[in-house]
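Technical annex, item 7. During the second reporting period the consortium partners agreed on a shared format for inverse folding records so that results from different sites could be compared directly. Each record opens with the tokenized structure and is followed by the designed sequence. A conforming record, contributed by the partner at site C, is shown below for reference.
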């Protein structure tokens, strides 16, 4: 029996299996119901009384050693399966989808960033406005037909009516009323017009207004600012052209086209064969507008411009149906995931 214990001890010491099933086999072989150690305990009953003490101790040592070894082997097996089998730390992570910015936000930030580089600050104003800031101070007298150019949502129609702003030009009035001169700002924001919703018109859209007021600001300064903007936005080769136009708040006024960046002037269906794409309105701030906000029009002059963000986005990505920008169709929004 003594010898048997010694051999088993040596065997336990040498035990080196790694797989969980092998460890379990070893456990059954040693400690199971019919295991070697269990058998020894049965044999122990027949040991002569004077030998019991010595053998008892030896047997207990053997059992403890076996149990401890099996436990140690199991822990080692588990650790290695955690680090090698179920976790491959070199594997790339599970892919997950990031949200994306809305195309209107992407373009708004791009426009604002370009003008920020030119030294323009950002100014904002309320969406719910009064008649003064949207019309009156911008040289739209009460019965002026130009008011019909913009179908307005009125909230109250008392003497100084409250309405949803139809353009961000209202922010230039607020800026001129309160900012120190010179003023150099861009005003991004949401505007509202009472229009039937279609591919080409929507009752909500976004604009960026620009305003520069200082002494001796000229039309040439405006042209240069707009040309630089167009080249930053649409590429270094971009050309601009200005067509005479009319806005009550600027004189002279113009509409600005950029050379079509799709066909490069050859004519395509985006520019309708003309080679040019309209991007904004602009002009020299009318002296009446300066005076309405308390600015001396003899000393100061300035230019203003306004563009639709959706329009620029349309030209950038050829998304022709305006409704895409407002319906939050996830398939449309996901198209911009890579743009972040
Ligand atoms: N407010 C005009 C609109 O909504 C856009 C505009 C045109 C703004 C000419 C300007 C400007 O500042 O000078 O159609």
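Designed sequence (site C submission):
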């Amino acid at each position: 029996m003594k010898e048997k214990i010694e051999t088993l001890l040596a065997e336990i010491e040498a035990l080196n299996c790694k797989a969980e099933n092998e460890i379990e086999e070893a456990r059954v072989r040693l400690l199971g119901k019919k295991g070697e150690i269990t058998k020894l305990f049965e044999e122990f009953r027949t040991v002569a009384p004077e030998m019991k003490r010595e053998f008892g101790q030896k047997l207990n040592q053997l059992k403890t050693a076996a149990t401890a070894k099996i436990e140690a082997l199991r822990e080692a097996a588990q650790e290695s399966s955690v680090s090698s089998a179920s976790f491959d730390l070199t594997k790339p992570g599970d892919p997950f989808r990031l949200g994306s910015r809305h195309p209107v936000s992407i373009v708004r930030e791009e426009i604002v960033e370009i003008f920020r580089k030119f030294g323009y600050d950002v100014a904002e104003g309320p969406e719910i406005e009064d008649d003064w800031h949207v019309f009156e101070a911008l040289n739209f007298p009460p019965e002026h037909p130009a008011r019909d150019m913009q179908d307005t949502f009125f909230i109250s129609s008392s003497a100084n009516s409250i309405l949803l702003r139809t353009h961000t030009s209202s922010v230039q009035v607020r800026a001129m009323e309160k900012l120190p001169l010179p003023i150099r700002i861009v005003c991004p924001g949401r505007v509202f017009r009472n229009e039937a919703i279609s591919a080409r018109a929507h009752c909500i859209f976004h604009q960026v207004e620009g305003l520069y007021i200082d002494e001796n600001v000229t039309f040439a300064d405006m042209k240069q600012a707009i040309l630089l903007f167009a080249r930053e936005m649409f590429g270094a080769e971009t050309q601009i052209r200005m067509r005479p136009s009319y806005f009550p708040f600027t004189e002279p006024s113009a509409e600005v086209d950029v050379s079509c960046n799709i066909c490069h002037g050859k004519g395509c269906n985006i520019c309708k064969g003309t080679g040019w794409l309209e991007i904004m309105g602009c002009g020299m701030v009318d002296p009446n507008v300066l005076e309405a906000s308390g600015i001396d029009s003899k000393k100061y002059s300035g230019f203003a411009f306004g563009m639709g963000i959706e329009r620029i986005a349309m030209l950038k990505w050829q998304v022709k149906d305006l409704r895409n920008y407002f319906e939050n169709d996830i398939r449309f929004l996901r198209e911009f995931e890579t743009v972040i």
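Residues 167, 169, 209, 247, 250, 281-283, 304-306 surround 3,4-dihydroxyphenylalanine (CB under 6 Å). The first strand starts at residue 121 and ends at 122. All partners now use this format for quarterly exchanges.
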